Amino acid sequence: MYNVIIVDDEHMILLSLQKLLEGLEGKFSIAGVAEDGEEALLLLEKQSIDLLITDICMPEMDGLELIEKARNIDPNMKFIIISGYDDFSYAQTAIRYGVSDFILKPIVPGQILSTLDNMYTQMQATKRSYTENNEWVLLLETFKKELVEHIWTFDKEGALEKIMDVIDGFNRLPHYPQSLSQLLENLFRDIENELMNRNANLTNLLPEQIRWSPSTAGTMDIAKQMIRQMIDYVQGSRNLGSRQNVLKAVKYIEAYYASADFSLQEVANYIGVSESYFSRSFKEEMNISFIKYVIQFRMEKAKDLIKNSDRNITEIAFEVGFTDYPHFSKSFKRHYGLTPNEYRKQLLQL
Questions:
Q1: Which residues in this protein are found as 4-aspartylphosphate (predicted)?
Q2: Which residues have CB under 8 Å from 332's CB, separation 6+?
Q3: In 3D, which of 54, 47, 45 has the Cα closest to residue 7?
Q4: Which secondary structure element, helix H or strand E, spans residue 298, and what is its range?
Q5: φ/ψ bin of 68: left (φ > 0), alpha (ψ from -120 to 50), beta (otherwise)
Q6: How far, in Å, CA of 332 to CA of 330, rounded?
Q7: Bridge partners of 54?
């Protein structure tokens, strides 16, 4: 339900509007009534109001002045004015103040109910659009992270597939406040910044000004072209020999992570480079330190074993390379917010 305040200096009109609104059960809730603008402002400052219905002609503060002050309190508030003026120029002034609709005096119940029904429909549509846009922003953030990873690892096919997911998602939003080209421009600039943060040698991955096409098909082609260009640029800037070594190290980690004395030195020796060089190369390629990567890998293995086996937690701790249970339990809680035992109990309750 939407919270409503009614403002009118005529007591009988206040009572009539209250009665009509009470009949719209489930749509509006009367949060307060006021007989002048000052009294209404006090109500607005104390609670969140969705709709203000106000007479236009009141002593001290008229309806338009009240609306102007109410918009400063909440720019999203909707307004309906009650007026005895059936004048076009006056209506234009009211619209500039953000008024959504008018109720002309004398009060006609059918007209008011129709106006309120229309307002409810508008507010519901705005609410749905707002929710959809919020969900889209969160999804877009996930898409952006995935695109960065695809470009960073030269996965051209994955990146092109992901940019199509972005475009498909955009096309399902009828009320998104940006055009497709604006959205892609912002997305690509964010990706460019993220890639430059990973490698300071990367500069100007994208043209200073991307010339987007006015057609959707043309915009899609340019988006794909920008993806290919960024991958080629990143690929050309990287030491491919170093990347091959890191990929070799990742496979070694997957094979020997359970060893209690597994170490950075051991893997560097296996690759045939110095410990410091390997540590630096690993961080640059994987965007995570070697130590954190190994712990994260062990945590994922432990979580999988807790979920899919009946082995006791201490056995699992040793199995993923920990030499003492307290250390394992603290690391697990740091990663997942629960101790291993709490996580298993939670699974049993599902």
A1: 55
A2: 299, 302, 303, 338, 339, 340, 343
A3: 54
A4: helix 290-308
A5: alpha
A6: 5
A7: 7, 81
pLDDT digit string, tens, across residues 75-96: 888 998 887 765 555 666 776 6
**CA gap 300, 154 in Å, rounded:** 25
What is the distance between the alpha carbons of residues 222 and 330, in angstroms, rounded to a whole number? 48
**C-beta of residue 91 within 8 angstroms of C-beta of residue 102:** yes
CB neighbourhood size of 348 (10 A): 6
Spatial distance between the Cα atoms of 168 and 153, rounded to a whole number of angstroms: 24
Cα–Cα distances in Å, from 81 out to 27, 44, 57, 98? Answer: 19, 16, 10, 11
* 14 vs 33: CA distance, rounded Å: 7
pLDDT digits (tens, 9 = 90+) for 180-195: 999 999 999 999 999 8
Higher pLDDT, 125 or 139: 139
Distance set, CA 13 to CA 24, 100, 103, 105, 236 (Å): 17, 20, 12, 10, 75
C-alpha 93: how far from chain center: 36
CA distance 290 to 282: 6
C-alpha span between 70 and 44 (Å, rounded):
7
Q: What is the mean pLDDT of residues 190-218?
A: 86
Cis before 326 (ω within 30):
no
Q: Is the pTM of this model over 0.85?
A: no
Alpha-carbon gap, residue 311 to 301, rounded angstroms: 13
Instruction: Tell me the β-bridge partners of 5.
Output: 32, 52
For 251-273, give the DSSP string. HHHHHHTT-TT--HHHHHHHHTS
Nearest residue to 191 via CA among 152, 154, 238, 222: 152
Output the six-digit token pair for 214.
Answer: 């006015």
Look up residue 306 and give its DSSP letter.
Answer: H
Please tell me the predicted confidence (pLDDT) of residue 89: 59
* CA–CA gap between residue 260 and residue 318 (Å, rounded): 8
Percent of the chain past pLDDT 90, that is, above it, reads: 39
Local structure of residue 107 (DSSP, 8 states): P
Least Cα distance to 335 among 322, 323, 348 occurs for 322
Relative to beta strand 101-104, strand 78-83 is: parallel
